[in-house]
Amino acid sequence: MMHGKPQIARFFIVFLLVISGSFLLHAQDGTQNSNSDVKDKSSDDQKQSTSDKSKSVTAPDAEQSGGQDPLSRPKPQTPSGKREKLSSAYKKWLDEDVRWIITSEEESAFKKLTNDSERETFIEGFWLRRDPTPDTQENEYKEEHYRRIAYANEHFAAGVPGWKTDRGRIYIMYGPPDSIDAHPMGGPYQRSAEEGGGSTETFPFEVWRYRYLEALGQQEVEIEFVDDCGCGAYEMTIDRSKKDALLHVPNAGLTTMEEMGMANKADRFRGGLEQLGQGPFNSNNQTKQFDRMETFAKLNTPPPVKFKDLSEVVTSKIRYNLLPFDVRVDFVKLTSDTVLVPITLQVPLRGLTFANKDGVQRAVVNVFGKMSTLSGKTVQVFEDTVRRDIPAELLEKELGTVALWWKAIPMRPGLYRLDVVLKDVNGDKLGTYSKGWTVPDLGGDDKLANSTLILADQVDAVPAREIGTGNFVIGQSRVRPRVQPSDGKPASFKKGENVNFWMQVYNLGVDEKTKKPSATVEYQVINTATKQSVLNFTKSTRTSNGKRL
Known about the structure:
Layout: E1 9-19, E2 22-28, H1 35-65, H2 88-97, H3 104-111, H4 116-128, H5 140-155, H6 166-174, E3 179-183, E4 187-190, E5 199-202, E6 205-213, E7 218-226, E8 235-237, H7 256-259, H8 289-299, H9 309-315, E9 326-329, E10 332-335, E11 338-348, E12 355-357, E13 360-373, E14 378-391, H10 395-398, E15 402-411, E16 414-424, E17 430-439, E18 449-450, E19 454-461, E20 473-474, E21 477-481, E22 492-494, E23 500-502, E24 505-506, E25 510-511, E26 516-517, E27 519-527, E28 532-540
Helix pairs in contact: 5-6
């Protein structure tokens, strides 16, 4: 709120009007530069830039060539091409922090980066790809990963840090097991029937059991660790006989069949993955060897990245069978440091695939979008399913219309990228949109500011119970915008349709006489064909009770 001499804010709004069977309105800010001036200036700047580039590139080549084969000349060393040495911090991140979870492709890509800025961006994206809740500030995966490292170092160290041991590696990759069968002192052990039965003596060992490992896609996974050196260095093994301390002692630690003279202990060493003795219930051990080898191989592979699908769609440069749609983004003050960002999507019905169901034609579109920082950190995610039902006899008539989808998300001021993916469920069309947007700082309580000017076909007051909720509801009003097509043409209105202008102004000065905020808005509509003004009027907050401009 401003004090002292009252500030009378004056807003000047110009609209261009084309009359050709329908009304086309285009909002301008009243500045002196016309579109043609901007285009001419942009063209001149582009020509000048091209000329400068031509001079800076071709001139040195001409001077240095001297008749020499250009392909044999050494490549010039540019500052951007210099490779910054990998510092100890990034080396530690690669070799220690993420050693067990980084994929070979990611590791190869990281090693090819040339400077610390690229490495920082890579690391941020690395954790983002694994974040189970990318729409929150916290990255639970990252926090849990470093907690596991700390736990491994505290509990599994054995002459080397705990994260380097086999138990530490499995714990970091897959978390705590559902149960542990621990034999820290070894000693007498009664074999299971699958291991051949009979009793023996063992080295210290542990069996970790996971009811289900999503990364492996397997249930009831058992992992055995054996400390055959007695030094605390438990090693993961695929051979269950490794824990047998009497394995190489003749006539000791016999299986049930060996004790009965029905098998020879020497037969254990005639090849095979495991050196288990023969028993009545383990005759199929040989057929299970490949399953054990597959599990062992997967346990030695970094867990796959779970959240890939959106990244693959958004980052792909190849587009086919496109689903066309238009996007409108507005900005409305929510709090002193938060801006409400209404996003409106407009999809032509003619581009959708309709399926007949009980005499009704239905189109279904899945919507997925996200707002992210330029470094790739996701700030907001939204998704929805949009359906449009049309009676079969009216389908042809309705195909010339559009479907609207609306979502308002709170954002902090700053520079972001908006990515939107639309999928036609009944067909195979896919539409994508990606553009950078600056969420403006609409200021605190002492800064004169205004929201986006919205050209709308509907502006209505909403009931008190619906304030701030529902489609197209901004505060106390339902504002349905008319979306401008992506081809650059202005939004169009047919004859007989209402044309509404909606905008909020913040922190107006107070008129000392009326003790109310004071502002004046001037409207001007111009015929773009004749450049003549066809409508001029002025509106004051004094005549509108300061509620709506």
